[in-house]
């Protein structure tokens, strides 16, 4: 293994030294592309193939894309405070008989940009207040699925969303626009995984928490907020009961 590692390092070193100036340009190009995509569509997934094509359009060195992408990830973290996290999904989170994923296996390897800044700093200096309605919608949906045990049938999810005034037929919500498209965006951003399950009564669509919703920071925040809501609700019920029996 040590010999293979040395050979691999030698190969990369040879390729990189062959283009000392160009490799810095390639790293900068990957960083610009990632930052632009994230600014253009916050939370979007960036496919590894897209980044590989940026590197290989002029250079054919075998190990160069991996080197450039790794260097870009390192600089994004140290300079911009972003983690470029790799997400890998080749099959649904739950593997049940009769289930088929709605996502393309070819799109499995991709990256998502996550801020490494402390929550209070991110809220003060980075967070886009114009996107607060999307954050609220994301939190509501993730909370519903979390309370359902991590996965929920499509009809049950819409049942709870309708109670919040969010109807699947609404194409012109004042803040979210098309509610269906807003929900689909959570699938594209890997907050949710959408799968089709075959049963005796036909096919059923299941929404399940995906990698980003299962991230420790998000998962912990959701659980804390739910606990607060449950605590306030419990206090309200106790207060009403005491008033009733006075």
UniProtKB/TrEMBL annotation:
InterPro entries: MAGE, MAGE_WH1, MAGE_WH2, MHD_dom. GO terms for cellular component: nucleus. Pfam families: MAGE (PF01454). Gene3D superfamilies: MAGE homology domain, winged helix WH1 motif, MAGE homology domain, winged helix WH2 motif. It comes from the Eukaryota. Residues 68-230 form the MAGE domain. SMART domains: MAGE. Coiled coil: none annotated. PROSITE patterns: MAGE. This is MAGE domain-containing protein.
